[in-house]
Amino acid sequence: MGSGWVGEANQADFEEKVIAASKAHPVLVDFWAPWCGPCRTLGPILEKIVDSYQGKVRLMKVNTDENPSLAALYRIQGIPAVKAFIDGRIADEFVGVLPERQIREFVDVLIPTEADGLAQKGKEQEENPLAALALYEEALKKEPQHAAALTGKLRVLLALDRIEEARSLFNHLPAALQLHPETRRLQTRLDLALSRKTGPSLQELTVRAKKEPENLPLQFDLATALAAEGKYPEALEGYLNIVRKNRAFKDDGARKAMLQLFEIIGPRSPLAESYREKLASILF
């Protein structure tokens, strides 16, 4: 184990050598024991493969005889057992000795691609939406179906108020990605933005709603317009007032709209928690 990319880990340094290190690069953990024949077969293959990646992945070997608590924590029932850690979590694993080709395929999936790197940079640049958009588009040139780049591009197009482009992008997303929770949240934002484009202006709705406080369809439209403009506290208050007056209105639409907004602003955000309590006090 002379390579700088292969080492040993134990109970005392596992957090540092595996969990923390995996936030910078994938870390393979080989759970083995000296008496295990297959372990002695797999070990050199793993070391050879990891060395060939020149630092893009690390290998840490854990002797299960000397570290039974780690073996128990990670539910090691048979060895050799290999677990791949990324961002502090197990990303993939296998048990037993696999052919070198299969192990390389296993590792290849773990290594960030160039598109992965561009998408990550795009996410870090989203305070500058145009710069982020350029990075996401560069990533998509390399991998047209890259999920993080597609989602990021949709997020940035909404931030730039390029609603028609966002709608076109969403309509062409892979079906599986359209069902992803984050994409569903972005779809809600897109629907709100489209309603803002086609309906009366926020200013017009505000004036009319003040004159007709009991007009629930109008109050609902105002709350939706406020949500489309990112005025989430005002929108939530508007929907809440409708629930107070008539929960059944629009097939419980105001409560459902509040739940959608909770997802957009963050289900555990202070604003969502506050209005969740207010909603519960009315309903229960």
Oligomer: single chain
Unreliable residue runs: none
What composes the largest sheet?
5 strands, mixed
Gross morphology is elongated
Strand order of the largest sheet: 1-3-2-4-5
Mean pLDDT over all positions = 93
What is the β-strand count? 5
Kindly, what is the distance between the CA atoms of the first and last residues, rounded to a whole number of angstroms?
63 Å
Total of helices? 15
CA radius of gyration is 26 Å
Task: Describe the structure in your own words.
The protein is an alpha/beta fold. The chain is 61% helix and 10% strand. Strands 1-3-2-4-5 form a five-stranded mixed sheet, with helices on both faces. It is elongated, with a radius of gyration of 26 Å. The N and C termini lie far apart (63 Å).
Keywords:
284 residues; alpha/beta; 15 helices; 61% helix; 10% strand
Short characterization:
With 284 residues, this protein is of the alpha/beta class. It contains 15 helices and five strands.
Topology:
Elements: E1 6-8, H1 14-20, E2 27-32, H2 37-52, E3 58-63, H3 68-73, E4 81-86, E5 89-95, H4 100-110, H5 114-124, H6 129-142, H7 147-159, H8 163-171, H9 175-178, H10 181-198, H11 202-211, H12 216-228, H13 232-245, H14 253-265, H15 270-283
Parallel strand pairs: 1-3, 2-3
Antiparallel strand pairs: 2-4, 4-5
Helix pairs in contact: 5-6, 6-7, 7-8, 7-10, 8-10, 10-12, 10-14, 11-12, 12-13, 13-14, 13-15, 14-15
